[in-house]
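Protein in question kept underneath.
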Amino acid sequence: MKSSTPLRSGPASTCGGSYISGAVAVSCWYANSAGNIWYATMHYGTFQDGWVYGGNFTALDMALDDVNYCDGW
């Protein structure tokens, strides 16, 4: 993940949040109304949950399929 990546409270750039660096655990993905891919994550350093825009990952191995899709958003 890129350094100083925004960890948002929801899957949109307008959602508030904080900045993180380092590793995260990714649980699922979501395509918002603008068509952007976001990932529900947990930051290992702070154990803070949030959303990270897909373009902020330097490497990620997750299939964008129904199995990994975040339901309920």
The beta strands are 5-8, 17-20, 24-31, 37-43, 49-53. The mean pLDDT is 93. The two ends are 23 Å apart (CA to CA).
